[in-house]
Amino acid sequence: MISSVSLIGGTVLTSHGALEAADVHIADGMIVEAPSPSATAIDCRSFCVLPGIVDVHGDAFEVALHPRPGVNIAFPIAMRWVDRQLLANGITTVFHGLTLSWEPGARSLPAGRDFMDGLEGLRPQFLADHRVQLRWETFAHDAIDDIDHWLARHPKPALAFNDHTTLTLEAARSGNTKKLEVWAHRAGLTLKEYLAMAEEIGRRAPDVADKVRDVAERASRRGAIMLSHDEKTRGEREQFRNLGAKVCEFPLARKVAEDAVSNGEYVIMGAPNVIRGGSHTGAMSAEDAIGNGLCDVLASDYYYPSLLHAAEHLVARGVCSFGEAWNLVSRNPAASMGLQDRGAIETGRRADLAVLDCTGPWRLVHLVVGGVVTTFGS
Predict the structure, then answer these.
(1) What b/e sequence results for 254-267 when a residue is b if at least 16 CB atoms lie within 10 Å of its CB, and e otherwise?
(2) What's the angle, vertex CA 88, arms to CA 83 and CA 93, rounded to 5?
(3) For the packed helices 191-202 and 165-174, what is the interaxial angle rounded to 10 degrees?
(4) How many C-beta neighbours within 10 Å does residue 329 have?
(5) Which of 350, 300, 297 is nearest to 96 (CA)?
(6) In this model, does residue 377 exceed pLDDT 80?
């Protein structure tokens, strides 16, 4: 393995958001001030040298593990493929959005246990830095002790509070079951079986607030980053803020994003929303939110290529500058997850870098993860 590398002649995104001609030197996985005499030189003239992409919420791994309903791929095969997909899309750090629900199947607690154990075993084989966002369904009370156990692991997972149970019951009672049919299919149930299970689980509603406080206190003791997911009202944002969840993920209303921003909190939205020109669920436009200062972090959500191309889209449309667009997928996500060792090209930081050809449609040429270089073509 090459231990010392110098990226020569590239246009580097500085920590001040400017693009400047500079060389970047790497030794032992870190960005260093001066080149090593034995450094391997990589010609980056005409290329942009940028901090690697940090994905704070990606669940496309679910498709790799379960490409069709009832079809399961062996964990090592699926996740090695995911690792290569991350690299091919410039993602150097990923937080897998692992849903822990009361549903059977792919989002069940047993599936979550298999994922966490499998990831631990495979971690030494990955090139990207694989982490986890525990996306806890607040009615899934059987998962609480597992969550507490996992929050003691290194690297420490982030924790997101999510309530799709109430949404499920509201949709069922209104007769709007189209999405619920998809969810039932994913769980390996008929719609009737799924709704019956949801109704049974819904009886836990009086206990949910106490369970949420309990989990938040456990996460706080562990020093975990906490997020709240799919908030509809300012009241929900205030509730979770008071519990220590200072990151607002996928707000469903503009007023929620405004409230988060006014309190100095990070707002996460989906990069697919940007490249598609809007939300597939009819929620806020991420591009509009960015243009109005209401979103500072983009996540891949369900599609890994979206992060790189969302930044390209925003620059092409003049929504923000190159540096601002790239901060949405690198510097800001790293900061929101408490990762102070990446997200910027500075001496002493981890050597996670993406080298792009931006002279036409943006194209990844090299990716550096912890000092290890993968080349995709020049």
Answers:
(1) eebbbbbbeeebbb
(2) 55
(3) 120
(4) 31
(5) 300
(6) no
- The pair of three-digit structure tokens given for residue 132, joined into one six-digit string: 């986890």
pLDDT for res 171: 87
Q: Which residue has the tokens 């205030």?
A: 238
Looking at residue 1, what is its pLDDT?
A: 52
How far apart are the C-alpha atoms of 306 and 275, rounded to whole Å?
7
Percentage of the chain beyond pLDDT 90 is 89
- In the chain, what are the domains? 1-50+344-378 (2.30.40.10)
- Return the structure tokens found at 260: 């988060």
Here the tokens at position 42 are 């990589």
Running DSSP on this structure, what letter comes out for residue 293? Answer: T
Tell me the angle at which helices 178-186 and 165-174 cross, rounded to the nearest 10 degrees: 130
Q: Work out the average pLDDT over 181-185.
A: 89
> What proportion of the chain, given as a percentage, has pLDDT over 70?
99
> What rounded mean pLDDT belongs to the chain?
95
Provide CB contacts within 8 A for 374, sequence distance 6+.
87, 127, 366, 367, 368
Structure tokens given for 371: 């000092």
- Residue 350's contacts (CB-CB under 8 Å, 6 or more residues apart) are 29, 30, 31, 341, 342, 370
Q: Residue holding tokens 């500075």?
A: 346
- DSSP assignment letter at 71: B
The span from the CA of 25 to the CA of 359, in Å, is 24
* Distance between CA atoms of residues 136 and 163, nearest Å: 8
Output DSSP code: residue 123. G
Contacts of 345 (CB under 8 A, 6+ apart): 12, 13, 14, 15, 24, 31, 49, 50, 51, 353
| pLDDT over 90 (residue 69) | no
* Degrees to nearest 5, angle at CA 122 with 116 and 123: 85
If we measure between CA atoms, which residue out of 235, 285, 270, 226 comes closest to residue 256? 235
Mean pLDDT of 115-143: 97
Q: Give the pTM.
A: 0.96
d(CA 288, CA 336): 21
Residue 359 has pLDDT above 80, yes or no: yes
At 265, is the secondary structure helix, strand, or coil? coil
Q: Strand, helix or coil at 89?
A: coil
Query: How many whole angstroms separate alpha carbon 198 and alpha carbon 23?
Result: 57
